[in-house]
């Protein structure tokens, strides 16, 4: 009975009675699209998680083992602040709020207008002294 010499953690030794020792490389594939698989000669298999960050602050970034990285729009990222502002998400700057109170403007010279954050556009008859 012959024992094969250890060479490192990345090779599994086998002994064949006719041909002697041979070494099969370890299969470190964890079958996950979310890892980079390799072998460290000192410690063995290494399955390092990949980063799915797409550097877009407007997306949710995650990884699914059988699929890989997924980057979906985060619809809840920017909350509508009130009736006088709108918001959109910029991929690098994040939430950008825009004053939309001018949408309440009217060309009717007999009306005063304002945007109330709670209810939106408000109109009232102009008061003259």
What does it look like?
By secondary structure, this protein is an all-beta fold. The protein has no helices and ten strands. It has strands at 11-16, 20-25, 35-40, 44-49, 59-64, 68-73, 85-90, 94-99, 111-116, 120-125. The strands form five sheets. The chain has a two-stranded antiparallel ribbon. A hairpin with a 3-residue loop joins β7 and β8. It is rod-shaped and about 115 Å long. The protein starts with 10 loop residues before the first strand and ends with a strand.
Which sequence of strands runs across the widest sheet? Answer: 1-2
Q: Structural class, from secondary structure content? A: mainly beta
Give a count of the beta strands, DSSP E runs of length 2 or more: 10
- Give the strand content: over 45%
How would you state the average pLDDT, rounded? 92
Helix and strand run: EEEEEEEEEE
How would you sum up the major sheet?
A: 2 strands, antiparallel
Helix content percent band: under 10%
Count up the helices. 0
Radius of gyration: 32 Å
Distance from first to last alpha carbon: 114 Å
Global shape: rod-shaped
Poorly predicted residue ranges = none
């Amino acid at each position: 009975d012959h024992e094969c010499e250890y060479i490192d953690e990345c090779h599994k030794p086998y002994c064949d009675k006719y041909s002697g020792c041979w070494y099969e490389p370890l299969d470190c594939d964890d079958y996950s699209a979310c890892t980079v698989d390799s072998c460290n000669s000192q410690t063995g298999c290494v399955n390092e998680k990949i980063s799915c960050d797409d550097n877009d602050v407007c997306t949710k970034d995650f990884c699914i083992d059988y699929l890989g990285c997924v980057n979906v729009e985060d619809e809840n990222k920017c909350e509508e602040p009130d009736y006088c502002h709108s918001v959109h998400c910029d991929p690098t700057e994040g939430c950008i709020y825009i004053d939309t109170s001018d949408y309440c403007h009217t060309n009717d010279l007999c009306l005063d207008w304002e945007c109330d954050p709670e209810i939106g556009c408000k109109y009232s008859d102009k008061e003259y002294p």
